[in-house]
Amino acid sequence: MKAEELTALGQHRLAKAFDVILLLALIGFFTVIPHVSRMLYMGDWDFWVDWKDKLWWPIVGPASALLVTTVGHYLAWYYLRLPLGATFAAVCVLIGAWISRIFSFYGLEYYPLNFVWPATTIPMALALDLILFWSRSYLVTSFVGGFLWGFIFYPINWLMLMPFLQPITLFGKTFTIADLMGYYFVRPQTPEYLRRIDEGTLQAFLGQRIWISVLTAGVACTIVYWVGIGIGKALGVMPLNKVIRQT
Amino acid sequence: MAATQTSAAVEIQVKETKQEQTGYGEMPFMRFMVIGSSLGLLSLLLIRLWQGEWWFPVGLDATTPEFATYWLGLLYIEWVVLIAVGVMGYLAYRKPCAICAAHKIELGRIDPEHELNHIGKLWATVAVAAIFGFGVSYFAEQDASWHQIVVRDTAFTPSHIPLFFYAFPMLLVMTAISSWYAYNRLHHLYVGEDGKGIPLSYLLFPAGGWLLFANVAFNELGHSSWITEELFVQPFHFPFAWATYFFFAGFALLFKTVPHIFENLKAMTQQETPTSVHAS
Amino acid sequence: MSRCGKLCATLTLALCLCTTGVSPPGVSRVQAHGEHNLEPFIRMRGVTFFNVQFTHDQLKVNETMTVTGKFRLMHAWPRMLTTPELSWIGILVPGPKLAVRERWINGRFIQNSFHTELGEIYDFKMVLQARQPGRYHIHPLVNLSGTGGLVGPAKWITVVPGDAPPSYTVEVAATGEIIDLEHFGFARHRPRTLRIRSNS
């Protein structure tokens, strides 16, 4: 069929009904898959503001958020030639996360929302889609977009995190505001020693260590991008024409 | 023999008449989607309201009789709904469509509008499954907040009851119904007219729901034996995330039908005359 | 399918009706949590609490109370459990309905996890602040690395509404700004409670 013919058919009432159904299915599955993936790989870093550190969160956060977002990015481009998949997945997952924070963490447990806000990935998702749109190449997107994803995750979320890193002195000990929130809004089953924050020897690099972390995140995301494409290919595209023959 | 043929012809005639009246022969797919997704969403909403009411008063201690009344009661209702939906889905689509068969005999091909309704119905089942995906997304993170506040004392906590024993199996049931529908109504689109073979997407799509549900057993075993701390990001939980990746096979299941949607739409537009308002 | 639809509708209606049920007699709106299923050997041979005292049993929102006591890590530590090295104290409460302002171990204010050894006795003190009205079952809690949280004796605490919404104000060291942890960062949507310290 020619493009004009397809466009004309797309105006049909039933074609629009199919659009609506597809949108609903996409919203549902692109909320659950990236959200479950994200909460299990970076969960505690994403739940609590005092877990958002300079060493692990900038690496684990973007890498785990990218994994399934890339699948959306890849499938939208493969099937629909739309450079919107990553942004769509990022928006869905953020809405899903906020619903959960408002109605569970705040609504049921009464943790204040400024303690449990989720990190955003929408700006990086826009960049990823835009780079694929311009370059039309997964290779370029992985090296530029994937790297950028990891590299700017911390700076972008730092805008929200920054106020919580101010120091406070209590009984002669120094806390950040985030630390104090973790101390005050008691989490009975996630004690202080479970926090994976700022551990290790990168302390020796002083002010440079955040740049080392985001650089590592950029490189990690370049690789994770291909893992995401692999998952998309193996589970979203490969079964399209594979038939198990009955003997 | 002749009598049988006559009765078969009458039956076909009756079905054709019905098909002409409705254009579809089954429930129109948009209506199915609206009803199905509203009921799904309503069930999730009711469970959340129930949690809001009974979470703290009777949900924190699994040894009390109130817990059994309120939370295990909810669990049993969920299981009734689950089994009912599963059985209905199985029974409703267990036979190939008689109207399609009649069309093939009478016209040599399936009526485009009728086939389009089948495709739409398949898409609608996937959309209804997606509603429960949304439920998984919400209740899974709620579980993280729940485990902060109690000593873990049962596998049937108020957060597990909607997640592990409703949303996960419901995803399994709905995705299995999608595959079952495709197998019994649209199999020719996937494997050609000879009808041999099982497309991989039929299997991989429900596999996600099955793996989620299966991993519940492993998860509870771990938490009852060697995982004593509530660290949500521990690698022990990762298989839940891997299981959800199988839902991407839904893309393969749906997009295989896209060329046929356009073909049927084209055929429908060609059939339509300026005086006919029936199809649109 | 219409029959299926009707059946679905009926089931959902049944669920609706069930959910609208009112509280039956005998169900008190109290908030205990699953400590009953902690196995006895963990209570007897794990951590033993003694001299636990609560200063209040009723509080207004924003009022504080103190929990004091001692706990001992028993020598007969169960072989199934990891021998703890790092520990942390807190309270077991259904959500931060009461928050913890201060934690003290052996007379020292603690900010981070502390080292524990089997056979030792630790003296603890915690200052709690009420945040949300309700009736709660509060336990002192010791988290032990590799083992999880073990709870001590509990008390029912009633929190009644106070004069003001919950708030915990602290002073930022660098700027002297007074902030409220309850809504810090959401200042655009709530009245700001900022005060700049005068230089005098």
Architecture overview:
The complex is a heterotrimer of chains A (247), B (280) and C (200). Chain A is mostly helical. Helix content of chain A is 66%, strand content 4%. Chain A contains nine helices and three strands. A two-stranded antiparallel ribbon of chain A has the order 1-2. In chain A, a hairpin with a 2-residue loop joins β1 and β2. In chain A, α5 packs antiparallel against α6 and α7 crosses α9. By secondary structure, chain C is mostly beta strands. In chain C, 12% of the residues lie in helices and 38% in strands. The radius of gyration of chain C is 23 Å and the shape is globular. The C terminus of chain C is likely disordered. Chains B and C meet through α2 and α3 of B and α1 and β10 of C.
Concise description?
The complex is a heterotrimer of chains A (247), B (280) and C (200). Chain A has helices at residues 3-10, 13-41, 43-47, 57-80, 85-106, 122-135, 138-161, 177-184, 209-237; strands spanning 167-170, 173-176, 243-244.
Q: Can you lay out the helices and strands and say which pair or pack?
A:
The complex is a heterotrimer of chains A (247), B (280) and C (200).
Chain A: H1 3-10, H2 13-41, H3 43-47, H4 57-80, H5 85-106, H6 122-135, H7 138-161, E1 167-170, E2 173-176, H8 177-184, H9 209-237, E3 243-244
Antiparallel strand pairs in A: 1-2
Helix pairs in contact in A: 2-4, 2-5, 4-5, 4-7, 4-9, 5-6, 6-7, 7-9
Chain B: H1 2-22, H2 29-58, H3 65-92, H4 98-107, H5 112-146, H6 160-185, H7 187-191, E1 198-199, H8 200-225, H9 238-244, H10 249-255, H11 258-271
Chain C: H1 2-19, H2 40-45, E1 47-54, E2 58-60, E3 64-73, E4 86-92, E5 98-105, E6 108-109, E7 114-115, E8 121-130, E9 134-144, E10 148-151, E11 155-160, E12 169-171, E13 178-180
Parallel strand pairs in C: 2-11
Antiparallel strand pairs in C: 1-3, 3-8, 4-7, 4-9, 5-6, 5-8, 9-10, 9-11, 12-13
